[in-house]
Amino acid sequence: MHGQHKDEAPVLNNPVPVRHPGRWVSAAIILLLVAGFLQSMFTNPNFRWDIVGTYILDVKVVQGVGWTLLLTVASMVLAIVLAILLAVMRQSDNPVFRWTSWVWVWFFRGTPVYTQLVFWGLVTVLYPAITLGIPFGPELFSYALSDPTKGLIPAILGLGLNESAYLAEIFRAGLKSVDKGQQEAAEALGMSKGKIMWRIILPQAMRIIVPPTGNETIGMLKTTSLVLAVPFTLDLTFATNALANRIYLPIPLLIVAAFWYLLVTSILMVGQHYLEAYYGKGVDNLAPAAVNPAAAKAAGAGDAQKSMKMDFPEESAR
Amino acid sequence: MTVTAEMPLVKIEGLHKYYGHHHVLRGIDMTVKQGEVSVVIGPSGSGKSTMLRCVNLLETISAGRISVGGQLIGYREVNGRLHDLKTKEIAAQRREIGMVFQRFNLFPHKTALQNVMEAPIHVKGQSKADAQKRALELLDRVGLGDRSGHYPSQLSGGQQQRVAIARALAMEPELMLFDEPTSALDPELVGDVLNVMKDLAKSGMTMIVVTHEIGFAREVGDTLTFMDGGVVVESGDPREIIANPQHARTKEFLGRVL
After folding, report:
1. Which residues of A293-317 are buried (b: 16+ CB within 10 A; e: fewer)?
2. What is the b/e burial string over B110-121, where b = at least 16 CB atoms within 10 angstroms of the residue's CB?
3. Total beta-carbon pairs less than 8 A apart between chain A and chain B
4. B149, A199: Cβ pair inside 8 Å?
5. Which of A1, A278, B10, B195 has minimal CB crowding within 10 Å?
6. What is the pLDDT of residues A23-32, one digit of tens each?
7. Is A188 in contact with B56 (Cβ distance < 8 A)?
8. Does pTM surpass 0.90?
9. Do B101 and A185 touch (CB under 8 A)?
10. Which of A282, A83, A103, A250 is nearest to A172 (CA)?
11. What angle do CA B179, B182, B255 make, to 5 degrees?
């Protein structure tokens, strides 16, 4: 502030910080509660930690984790593909596409996933065969429907189609969040509709889409426990329930299931972190891209980012 | 598109534009010759940006015709009746026309280099190596050879706009449209962008520039068009119009911006 003193090192203010006694009190209360709970976990014999230990790596349990993962991944992949399609259809100039997308979301979001799972389990009863032909006329082609997968395909269809309705809305919000100027700039360059969507709009929309989709994926992991409605009977919840019913000890097997669900959720959260970093590039994540090593070198490699921020403080504030 | 010396590269005839009942353009006629720099000025809401956006069909044309290089923009004429072109055909016409926006509209998820390489690779089908070589040349030309690995958010507004110019030039257009290219810039960054545009004009590029930079019009412009209320009020030699405007509205506008 005082120009004539600019060579002297300033005396730092070093103020006395505001005290927060409430933090100490609340920490003490919470620690006490946690300690009490931990003590009960180790002293209450009803937890049956020995049974937890016996079954945590049981073949049926580990296989159940595998099936649950398969159901989660397969139904999410199906849902994501459908959701992109539905979101793009919703923005289409073609009124038939817009209307179809709207009705799809209305139906699959408007009925319980449990009901849909039961329905998909009964499809082969409702339609023993698919027949292609002229309505009320001759039959051209017929295919007998059967499910050799013992409920896996109906389960994936039920979970995936239901989820697609929710994801379609998330994708639609993501696509809408991209500035209109991006579309115009790409159009002005003569890019085709498809290229504009895949190369310009969708990658930017992903920044908005990934966090809620990660949320949905973790939700799906646990929704797979409903597949007994199909019925599909190999997933983690069914496997641990079956074991619990056999030995009349539900609590240790609930702990086994909870442990595995938490473990998988934690791994998914790590994956989501990396996905967010990838799609945040240029916006949230400003690590210099390694496209052109020569240019990166010229710009001063690792220091480039720092020095750029110094040059344009108002830009980095955005 | 081949153009003879006497034929104008851009011809706008009787252009009208409605937004609902709002009559934004009320019959614009304008021609731009090959290699000419045509500067368009006017108060905000005069329709100058809308007119520019009609040239590459970012706005639909309500009435009138625009042709670039002798080719009708947006339509095919069959037996005196106009037929809308397909999206693909419109995209092909746009490849010949570069556009620079007021808000730059760089792709934020791509580096400066990737922004410039995008269209040559994915529209023209150039090899990555060729596109990169050319893109680095163009970034050099706009004075940003050392910033190729930076994302738009790491560049100042003026640098972003120069990358945007390089991106448009990478398609080797016959015509460049500038929609208020310096209006969103801090005053000290305007000069660098104008210098790039001056160099471009000197190299013989045909340009239509919508701007508030009267100095640029005087120095670089071959023609100056003053628009107000959706019509062309006055058009001619920039230095003459700026020094001696014929219409009261032109006089009033120049009095306010000079």
Report:
1. eebbeebeeeebbeebeeebeebee
2. bbbbbbbbbbbb
3. 128
4. no
5. A1
6. 999 999 999 9
7. yes
8. no
9. yes
10. A83
11. 90
